[in-house]
């Protein structure tokens, strides 16, 4: 379960597993906006206040580390390896 004010894990997984080639422009924009807002929320929420589940979710989806270190999330790396990454 995600913390209050954070994007749900099911929404993140749903956005991650659907190939970019099958997404509409609206879906692309929505995914990017929601992802950025969730990263901002993860950045400002102190690590000590995050639930265990949120810490694990942030690790897999980039969360706090993606905004501070410019690292790709595990999900992004997997999508790229499968040829499903952002083609823009």
Automatic annotation (TrEMBL):
Gene3D superfamilies: 6.10.250.2440
Chain intervals for the UniProt region annotation (Disordered): 1-88
Biased composition (Polar residues): 1-10
Basic and acidic residues composition-biased segments: 19-35
Protein name in UniProt: Chaperone/heat shock protein Hsp12
